[in-house]
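Record format v2
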Amino acid sequence: MVSKTGSIREIKKIEKKQRIHEAAIRVMARNGYHGTTVSQIAKAAKVADGTLYLYFQNKDDLLVGIFDEIMDRFISEGLSVIEEVADPIEKLKRIVELHLHNLGADEDLACIFQIELRHNVHHMKRFSQSKLRQYFNIVERIIRDAQEQGQIRPEVNPWITAKILFGAVDEMATNWVLRTRDYSLVDMAKPTLDIILNGLGTHHEEPRSAVAIAEAEVGDHRGDLAAEAQSQ
Amino acid sequence: MVSKTGSIREIKKIEKKQRIHEAAIRVMARNGYHGTTVSQIAKAAKVADGTLYLYFQNKDDLLVGIFDEIMDRFISEGLSVIEEVADPIEKLKRIVELHLHNLGADEDLACIFQIELRHNVHHMKRFSQSKLRQYFNIVERIIRDAQEQGQIRPEVNPWITAKILFGAVDEMATNWVLRTRDYSLVDMAKPTLDIILNGLGTHHEEPRSAVAIAEAEVGDHRGDLAAEAQSQ
Amino acid sequence: MVSKTGSIREIKKIEKKQRIHEAAIRVMARNGYHGTTVSQIAKAAKVADGTLYLYFQNKDDLLVGIFDEIMDRFISEGLSVIEEVADPIEKLKRIVELHLHNLGADEDLACIFQIELRHNVHHMKRFSQSKLRQYFNIVERIIRDAQEQGQIRPEVNPWITAKILFGAVDEMATNWVLRTRDYSLVDMAKPTLDIILNGLGTHHEEPRSAVAIAEAEVGDHRGDLAAEAQSQ
Amino acid sequence: MVSKTGSIREIKKIEKKQRIHEAAIRVMARNGYHGTTVSQIAKAAKVADGTLYLYFQNKDDLLVGIFDEIMDRFISEGLSVIEEVADPIEKLKRIVELHLHNLGADEDLACIFQIELRHNVHHMKRFSQSKLRQYFNIVERIIRDAQEQGQIRPEVNPWITAKILFGAVDEMATNWVLRTRDYSLVDMAKPTLDIILNGLGTHHEEPRSAVAIAEAEVGDHRGDLAAEAQSQ
DNA sequence: TATGAATGAGCTTTCATTCAT
DNA sequence: AATGAATGAAAGCTCATTCAT
């Protein structure tokens, strides 16, 4: 009576949970949270309606689960990425690029993350607390480090700065989702970083930040970008 | 067949429409769009359920109507505000301040604007098009003017810049709504503008904006957000 | 204070009642009783919604009023028509022709009469009693006369006979309404009468009834009719 | 994913659909289509309101389903009945008898069939097309056969004849429903057939049908309808 | 573990009718 | 007599959730 294949079953269980997650993301990205029925998700995941309730408490819990999964992945990826470099400014760059890269790589996921997860105050609060707060804490830590190293003006508030950075990046992502994704989201990282990091910089020491220099390398692509932006 | 009291009735009609709008904002701010029933709105507006449908096609149209009303007010106010000054940088500052002032003055309105109006892709698209596009066009226009006058670096993309500015301000507003509004929203205008305008600026003329200097005076209380916010 | 124009007002009142009747027939013929709102009728009659209730107790009463009006007209016309001839068989012919002529002359009226007035048991009962009973009584009386004069077999039951005649004529009318009225309804009178009167006749005295002879005069039109019928 | 008890469930499903049909017929016969709520039908069928929608798309589809079911049964019964005899006239007699027998055996069904299924033009059209057309085609075919065998006058139009026959039978049925069914409906078959078949006949071979002779035996009780009807 | 038929609360919306003007 | 804005009861339908199999 003792299950000898416990671990295999465990894997299958995780697989099925994952399958339901994936299905939910696909269906909800197209129909929205309230426009999607539990039956639709079940059908897309190729399980029975009732089976969903073996893995999730209710429809809402499913959405929350998706959020937590996304955030866990984002954070662990973010942590490993910033470990690769020592320079705080470079860390910020990498985080923003990863953020936009991840969303830009999965349109449905981006749609869920930018819109469906925020469909009411309750979700928004949950969204802005817990996991997202970790994200902000990491960013704030880096900003403080940069301030200590004289790369960012000492007088700016790290919390506000993190908000501004996130807000700008978030707006880029949302806009990309709503614009039927007809341009590369990750390409928005550089111009965004240019402006904000420049705004944060201590310009008297070094008139142009490392970012600005890196940006300068992009060179003539800027014209493309501007053209693209205006063609929307 | 002709109404003798046409004008009076017309006024009453507008008043009632306004009353329903107000009621909807109050109730939806607390319960969310899907958590609010038409009956609840009707009761809050002190009209019968059916009366709502004399003024709005359906529940969704009611939300759309609120959005249009808000945006019309914001835009007309914004236009009159930027006419008062000639300097483009000053115009941007005033717009941001007005934006945060308006939302900060009505918590329920801010909640509707920041969250409920965006509860699905359909609304988001409507939100980002039409009226909001006017808003962006105005901001872009000012940015271009500032570039021509040498106040903003010529190489930044006005479209992206407008997005960044809006994203930062929007994030400030959303955060304020989710944080149970325990600090002054409009006070977020200055630090936000400081960073972004600084990032946009041609730093050789004026190394530090007046805002940055004012900010610097606040000193070292940066750890405490509320203090920071209120100290502005 | 005494109305000197009482009679004129009375006329206007009747006119308005008539106008509402007409409007109701037009609108209901297209949308059906339940598919038509009181407002639609009011608008078509160019009166306010509330005005309808000055002339009718409720929506149902309006339909009943239409029925009574139609029947009164049909019966009075029928009575005057049968007075013009003495022969009972000829009377029956004239009644059937009048019946189909009246309905065939007004498509909307036919639609109301054949379908909307019968939309539930309650109306059907009212329909088959009162006014329609007068109609049947007249037909039965003529059938009895024809039996006394040896034109119709004495053993047939006048009540059943009247039902059969009405049923056949009624089916013709209903079919015409449903078939988008692409043929002449009154043309159905002769072949219908041919079969039924022939079935009622005392064929040993006169192998062909007067009707059959009259019908023979139609001659070659029969081919047209058959062709038309089959083309449906 | 595969149901092990598929066949049993399938049977139960059909049974439940049937149960809902029955319930709908009972309730609608008393209250009419518009006078009956979905909840009433569900309660009568002893299922939940929502269960109805697992078997029918909407309230209207339920009515349509009933119609199709009735017609399928009528037509298959009709086909088997007319195969039992070779004589076309006898076939017509049997069809009419079956028609009135079926309706006369279930008062509620008759009520639905004669009245509720025809409650607006849309239903009438659906009623007169599709299934009912099959019925008419069968009757027309028999009439043509009878014409070829010299039993029905060659000059009568089969289409019109079928309409007259149906109209007469239909009126009998409707009248029976409205008359609180205080006599036997199937007894109306003989006198109806007597008149119409006599009207269609080629009277030189057999001056009087067997039906007419049988009818003649009833004698002089013709004043009393019930007696007449029951004496058949 | 998995199923999916069944549930029934709860929603939006309609519209005949009223009544203050 | 005429108006038409306001009413609110009432209905059809959906769908998250349950539970017998």
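Residues 37-39, 49-50, 53, 58-59 of chain A lie near DNA strand F (CB under 10 Å from a C1').
Residues 6-31 of chain A form the longest helix (26 residues).
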